[in-house]
Design goal:
Elements lengths: L2 H7 L2 E3 L1 H23 L2 H7 L20 H17 L3 H18 L6 H13 L10 H6 L1 E7 H21 L3 H5 L4 H4 L17 H23 L4 H18 L5 H8 L6 H14 L11 E4 L5 H17 L11 H4 L14 E11 L5 E3 L8 H7 L3 H17 L5 E11 L5 E2 L31
Parallel strand pairs: 2-3
Antiparallel strand pairs: 1-2, 4-5, 4-6, 6-7
Helix pairs in contact: 2-4, 2-13, 2-14, 4-5, 5-6, 8-11, 11-12, 12-13
């Protein structure tokens, strides 16, 4: 290990930014869980469906009926404990496990920002986010005003990876030279005040949004890092994410990214934020003047640092796994998820299944609505791993009903980014015999076009 790197690892900085980040993260996660519960999405997505699409290797993660509400309750309570810094280490571990379990229960609900929250909460397990301005300080009568600088820089690095990889993903011919899929989505926003009729219908605006979105993602981490451009960059963050939230129903993600951007600011701003919170807490008459003040030092840094280093190696390498697969990424989606590819596709499909008796040749078509919700059917219709898993579910179901010599064939047509639909699945392949794996699915028919880019 070089001397300069050792010096960096021993550098200390104010604990205030990490404390503000912990509070903001916990409050937003608590609000997200309450919001999810309030809208009835727990029942709609996890309790009512007869079948749930699983992630490969995590088939054992399933909703547990009405007890699924208990998982959300644990997640919400642990988020509250994270926010106030009570039993922080246990709370953030409980949050990571419960939230990730929720995310893995049905991949129909997959969103990039859910993955971001899981990844971020895992990183926070190894950070001293309760070192300052926490209930743990009250319990121990001790506070840490300074923490290792790398702990805050690690969050900055993760946020930068998300932005830069999202920007690189937009460097493709559909996004930049066809303004797809924004040319499909934006005209539908004609009812927006002021801009609906004047801008959303204009082709030049579609291209302006595409190019500015790519440049924003690639540049914003560097603008946030540099002190001279930080406030300008934060203004861009607020404008970009609020405008995106107005245009698209993407939940809490814009607000999460706005609050997360505060980690790039110097400690003075965070002390002012904590000062405002102290003012609100005055009725509780908390006196911290008699607390013992120390510098935070890791007791097991030699264990934690390699874990964090491996974590970032994985985060930087995993999104490029798509290079191991042939054919067009947007078409096959092999290596597409968990790679910060945000809103790059408008993909629609229509997929039907035929159950065949291999000996007699007798067959019948399946009514997908008998087994899937409308959202599940929509997602299944154009994603190959969904199609394969559902084919196996159908085969197992009809086998349990007494059918013999079962074969499952699919006929599928998919349209990508405004192109005409084309055949998607080889209709001669018995999908019931195909096994899910990390290998290429050779029963996906070739894409009759080319999309150039990362």
């Amino acid at each position: 290990m070089s001397t300069s790197f050792k010096i960096y690892l021993n550098k200390q900085t104010s604990a205030a930014p990490l404390a503000v980040f912990r509070i903001g993260f916990g409050v937003m996660m608590l609000f997200s869980i309450v919001r999810f519960w309030w809208h009835g999405w727990i029942e709609t997505l996890y309790v009512l469906p007869k079948f749930h699409f699983s992630y490969y290797g995590f088939e054992w993660v399933q909703p547990i009926g009405e007890y699924t509400y208990l998982i959300f309750a644990v997640c919400g309570i642990s988020a509250f404990f994270v926010a106030i810094g009570l039993k922080y280490r246990l709370a953030i571990i409980a949050f990571f496990l419960s939230f990730t379990y929720i995310e893995l229960m049905d991949k129909t609900a997959y969103l990039n920002h859910y993955y971001f929250i899981s990844v971020l909460s895992f990183l926070m397990i190894f950070l001293p986010a309760n070192a300052y301005f926490s209930v743990d300080n009250l319990i121990k009568k001790k506070t840490f005003t300074s923490i290792p600088k790398w702990t805050i820089d690690s969050i900055k690095l993760l946020v930068s990876i998300v932005y830069i990889y999202a920007g690189l993903a937009k460097v493709n011919s559909d996004w930049l030279f066809k303004a797809m899929p924004l040319r499909i989505w934006l005209p539908s926003k004609y009812d927006l005040p002021f801009v609906g009729n004047s801008f959303m219908q204009q082709e030049w605006f579609h291209f302006a949004m595409s190019w500015s979105g790519m440049l924003y993602d690639l540049c914003i981490p560097f603008l946030l890092i540099v002190k001279r451009t930080r406030w300008f960059a934060f203004g861009l963050v607020v404008f970009f994410h609020v405008f995106t939230r107005v245009l698209f129903p993407i939940g809490m993600f814009p607000y999460i990214m706005i609050v997360t951007a505060l980690i790039f600011f110097d400690a003075d701003l965070h002390h002012r934020i904590l000062g405002l919170i102290k003012t609100l807490l005055q009725p509780f008459k908390v006196n911290s003047s008699k607390f013992r003040t120390e510098r935070y030092q890791y007791k097991n840094q030699k264990i934690i640092l390699p874990i964090v280093a491996l974590f970032f190696v994985f985060q930087m390498a995993f999104p490029f796994r798509y290079l191991l697969y042939p054919n067009e990424l947007f078409w096959t989606e092999e290596g597409y998820r968990f790679s910060w590819r945000v809103m790059l596709m408008e993909k629609m499909g229509y997929t039907t299944f035929k159950i065949v008796d291999a000996e007699t040749g007798q067959s019948f078509l399946v009514d997908n609505s008998d087994f899937l919700t409308s959202l599940q059917e929509k997602q299944m219709s154009f994603q190959p791993d969904f199609i394969l898993e559902y084919a196996h579910y159908l085969g197992d179901h009809f086998k349990s009903q007494g059918h013999k010599n079962i074969q499952v064939f699919a006929e599928s047509y998919v349209a990508l980014n405004g192109r005409l639909s084309q055949p998607y699945v080889d209709t001669t392949v018995d999908l019931y015999k195909e096994k899910e794996s990390f290998r290429h699915k050779n029963w996906i028919l070739p894409f009759n076009d080319e999309i150039k880019g990362f």
